[in-house]
């Protein structure tokens, strides 16, 4: 009996605008992490951006594509009650606007995952997918975090394996995959380059995540109040190369 061909390794692209969503879709990405301010690690996207991206996916007949990062500020991941309430409200809004999933995370003062907060976020998401972001890489015990999240019923976790990037964290990513035992998807992220994808696939991860960014200098002068000149944009060639590498890694 012939074996069915293996499915390509899914690629998730972090994008900051509607053009990035379109480029990721055209390039064959499985989904997007929709956010703003990638230079800060990503913040909650605007309502208009979520709605526009969801409409684009619907027009193309693509499901499970738009996953909105819900993070109210930069800095650490210990949130006070007001911030948690804001996150819950943003989760509900993102889902109402058409997001297929949300990307969240929280730690407590001891450096462990704040499972109570994450359970609250999961409940606010309803039937939408829940991904726990790289807050997990700041957790005191990554393997314990994986086991706890699997029990909590979230869909996936984005991680560099606790390293400064996915290359440094590769051995831990392999251990995380074994700990998850298929109960939780392990998505590798953190400085992912095209040439890293075969090793990540060999480690058994369920998906790879990258921003595939280039620098745009268009848009005119920023002026005294507009910050630095230029802005990041999604690079179509990098998206296509990542998707091709992920597909080849599973051949």
How would you sum up this structure, described in words?
The chain is α/β, with parallel strands linked by helices and about 250 residues long. It is built from 8 helices and 10 strands. The strands form 2 sheets. Strands 1-2-3-4-5-6-7-8 form an 8-stranded parallel barrel, surrounded by 7 helices. Helix 5 runs parallel beside helix 6 (about 170-180). The two termini are about 20 Å apart. The mean pLDDT is about 90. This is PF03932 family protein CutC. Its main location: cytoplasm. Keywords: Cytoplasm.
Largest sheet: 8 strands, parallel, barrel
From the spread of the alpha carbons, the general shape counts as globular
Q: What is the residue-averaged pLDDT?
A: 92
User: What order do the SSEs take from the amino end to the carboxyl end, as H and E?
Assistant: EHEHEHEHEHEHEHEEEH
CA gyration radius, whole angstroms: 18 Å
Spatial strand order of the main sheet: 1-2-3-4-5-6-7-8
The low-confidence runs, each spanning 5 or more residues with pLDDT under 50, are: none
Distance between the termini: 18 Å
Please tally the β strands and state the result.
10
Class by SSE composition: alpha/beta
User: How many H/I helices?
Assistant: 8
- Fraction of residues in β-strands: 15-25%
Helical fraction: 25-40%
Subcellular location: Cytoplasm
Protein name: PF03932 family protein CutC
Pfam families: CutC (PF03932)
Keywords: Cytoplasm
């Amino acid at each position: 009996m012939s074996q069915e061909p293996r499915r390509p390794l899914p690629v998730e692209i972090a994008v900051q605008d509607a053009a990035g969503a379109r480029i990721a879709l055209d390039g064959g990405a499985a989904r997007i992490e929709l956010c703003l301010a990638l230079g800060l690690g990503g913040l909650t996207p605007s309502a208009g951006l979520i709605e526009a991206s969801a409409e684009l996916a619907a027009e193309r007949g693509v499901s499970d594509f738009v996953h909105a990062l819900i993070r109210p500020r930069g800095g650490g991941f210990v949130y006070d009650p007001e911030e948690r309430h804001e996150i819950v409200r943003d989760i509900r809004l993102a889902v109402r606007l058409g997001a297929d999933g949300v990307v969240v995370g929280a730690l407590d003062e001891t450096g462990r995952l704040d499972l109570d907060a994450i359970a609250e976020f999961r409940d606010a998401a309803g039937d939408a997918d829940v991904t726990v972001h790289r807050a997990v890489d700041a957790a005191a015990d990554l393997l314990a975090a994986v086991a706890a999240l699997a029990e909590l019923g979230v869909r996936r976790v984005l991680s560099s394996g606790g390293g400064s990037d996915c290359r440094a964290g590769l051995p831990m990513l392999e251990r995380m995959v074994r700990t998850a035992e298929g109960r939780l998807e392990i998505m590798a992220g953190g400085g992912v380059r095209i040439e890293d994808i075969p090793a990540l696939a060999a480690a058994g991860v369920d998906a790879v995540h990258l921003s595939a960014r280039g620098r745009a200098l268009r848009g005119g002068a920023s002026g005294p109040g507009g910050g630095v000149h230029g802005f990041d944009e999604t690079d179509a060639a990098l998206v296509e190369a990542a998707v091709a590498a992920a597909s080849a890694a599973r051949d």
